[in-house]
Amino acid sequence: MLFHPTSEHIPFDASLYYFVGIFDIYDREETKGEELAHYNPNDNADRENLILKYCLDPYNKLSYRHRYKLIESLSLALNTENFNFHSYFEDDPDEYSTMAWDETEIDDPRGFFADIYRLANEVWKDDLQKASLEDPSTW
After folding, report:
1. CA-closest candidate to residue 100, choices 49, 44, 31
2. For residue 139, what are the contacts with CB-CB under 8 A and spacing of at least 6?
3. Is the N or C terminus of the chain more exposed, i.e. has fewer CB atoms within 10 Å?
4. Do 88 and 106 contact (CB within 8 A), yes or no?
């Protein structure tokens, strides 16, 4: 079983939040919020910079296997008609979560995740290839 990168006991959940959770600015509006405010997530160049700088494992904590599982989950979501990508940008006051841009500010959440998929396949190419040669049921 594949475990969370920082635990030997918690199973890894390849949630799409791994890609956009970094945009949660709750209680950091004056620091991280102001940094992210310089980007327009609907502008192609800004979006690509956001994805490369923030979404693709910026702290290099994920193994090639974790990256493979994330891409697998993202691929499944992108291939699911009417998948609710908006929900990943919603604020959740019960969970003390405030996204840098809420679901109404992202013109095309599916497109945002499609760009993550495209760029992750480029940046993580070697890791994804390595993982594809293994049997995931042995992880």
Report:
1. 31
2. 1, 2, 65
3. N
4. no
**47 dihedral zone (left: phi>0; alpha: psi -120 to 50; beta):** alpha
Other beta carbons within 10 angstroms of residue 15's beta carbon come to 12
- The residues spanned by each domain of the chain are 17-138
Nearest to 102 by CA among 112, 113, 115, 88: 88
Specify the higher pLDDT residue, 59 or 109.
Answer: 109
Tokens at residue 9, please? 């006991």
Q: Is 84 helix (H, G, I), strand (E, B) or coil?
A: coil
Handedness of CA 5, 6, 9, 12 (dihedral sign): negative
